[in-house]
Amino acid sequence: MLWCRNRIRGGPDPDNRRPMIWDKNRWDLYLLAHVKKLVKLYREHKALQTGFFY
User: Fold this and answer.
1) What is the pTM of this model?
2) What is the 3-state composition of the chain as percent helix, strand, coil, each rounded to the nearest 5?
C-alpha cells in the first residue's frame, strides 16, 4: 500500500495510517524499489514536477 496523505481510508490522523503494513517482513520489496526509482526520477527532472519541459 502506498500512503498518499488522504488517499487511503481510515479517518483523521492517526487512523488514516492504520491500514498500513508496519511489519517490514511483509512489505513488497519489489514495489518499494520501483517506487524509489520513480521518486528519484521525479526529483531529478523538473518537467515531472511542473509539467513543463521546454
Assistant:
1) 0.61
2) 50, 0, 50
In the chain, DSSP assigns E strands to none
Task: Please check the confidence at residue 5 and state whether its pLDDT lies above 70.
Answer: no
Which pLDDT score is estimated for 8?
55
Rounded to an integer, what distance in angstroms lies between the CA atom of residue 54 and that of residue 35?
26
Sign of CA dihedral 39, 45, 46, 51: negative
